[in-house]
Design brief:
Order of helices and strands: HHEEEEEEEEEEE
Number of strands: 11
Distance between the termini: 32 Å
Shape: globular
Number of helices: 2
Structural class: mainly beta
Radius of gyration: 18 Å
Strand content: over 45%
């Protein structure tokens, strides 16, 4: 009985967002489909990207992912984009652009960077986009 009470107590201490967490990563190159200048990838999540002027062709490789932490939590925040090389130019894919979810990263493949004006962000530069993993909350 004491063991059951202890388990329930521990479970009650887990934050609400942790109950609905889903593992995610930047989409694999082979899952991205081109429709004119619009690129999509859809599994359990929707990804969309629009090629800039002069950027055309099939996706050739993964470049990087950018994550911006929230003001008070380094590992929780917003996934800004996943960038890919096209036959000519670059493509930025965005996770659920109509409803940017909060995500959590681990520092395993993400490197802390400091940009202009002291802005802190994390970047993941790997050959395999699935290594740029994160957890989607809610």
């Amino acid at each position: 009985m004491k063991r059951r009470i202890a388990c329930v107590a521990v479970l009650l201490m887990v934050p609400g967002w942790a109950w609905a967490s889903v593992a995610g990563s930047c989409p694999p190159v082979e899952n991205i489909k081109a429709y004119g200048g619009v690129y999509t990838s859809q599994d359990e999540r929707v990804w969309i990207g629009v090629a800039s002027d002069g950027a055309i062709g099939q996706v050739r490789g993964f470049e990087s992912a950018l994550f911006y932490p929230s003001e008070h939590a380094d590992m929780r925040g917003t996934l800004a984009k996943c960038s890919y090389r096209l036959e000519r130019g670059m493509l930025d894919m965005h996770l659920q652009p109509d409803n940017r979810p909060t995500v959590t990263i681990t520092e395993e493949h993400w490197q802390r960077q400091r940009g202009p004006f002291g802005i802190v962000y994390f970047e993941c530069k790997k050959d395999d986009p699935t290594l740029c993993a994160f957890t989607i909350e809610g």
